[in-house]
Design brief:
Blueprint lengths: L1 E6 L3 H17 L2 E6 L7 H18 L3 E5 L6 H11 L4 E6 L4 H5 L3 H9 L4 E5 L1
Parallel strand pairs: 1-2, 1-4, 2-3, 4-5
Helix pairs in contact: 3-5
C-alpha cells in the first residue's frame, strides 16, 4: 500500500514528512512524496530540498517515490489525484498555525483535502 504526503520545505512540511515516515514504517507501506515549489523559491534550493528528502528516506530504509508537482496547479487536486491513482491508504498533510479567526476556516487546500479525499487524512502541526 501507499501513503501520500504533501511536502513543502517548511516546518509544516517537515512535520508531515516525519509523520508519514512513521506511518509508513508502522504499516510497512511505500511513500509517495508530492513536492511543491514555494512561490519565489529558487530551483537550486528546491533541488537541495529534494536531495535532503531523498537522503532521509534512504536512511530510513523506506520505499518511496518523490514527484514534483507543477507550479500553478491546485495542490489539493494533486494530492487527491495521486491518492486515487495509487490506491493510497492514507494522505498526510501539514497544517499551519492559525489565528483564532483563521481557526474557524481551515486553509482552503487543507479543507478540500480533508473533505474530498478518498482515504483517511492525517493532518499534523509542526
Amino acid at each position: 500500500m501507499t501513503i501520500v504526503v504533501g511536502y513543502l520545505a517548511t516546518a509544516e512540511g517537515e512535520a508531515a514528512l516525519t509523520a508519514a515516515m512513521t506511518e509508513a514504517t508502522r504499516r510497512s507501506s511505500r511513500l509517495l512524496v508530492l513536492v511543491s515549489q514555494r512561490r519565489g523559491e529558487d530551483t537550486a534550493v528546491l533541488e537541495a530540498n529534494l536531495d535532503s528528502v531523498r537522503t532521509r528516506l534512504d536512511d530510513a530504509g523506506l520505499g518511496y517515490e518523490v514527484r514534483q508537482v507543477e507550479r500553478g496547479r491546485d495542490v489539493a487536486d494533486d494530492l487527491i489525484d495521486a491518492a486515487e491513482a495509487s490506491d493510497a491508504e492514507l494522505i498526510v498533510i501539514g497544517l499551519r498555525r492559525r489565528s483564532p479567526v483563521g481557526k474557524l476556516i481551515l486553509g482552503s487546500n487543507a479543507q478540500r483535502i480533508l473533505l474530498d479525499a478518498p482515504t483517511p487524512v492525517l493532518a499534523v502541526k509542526s
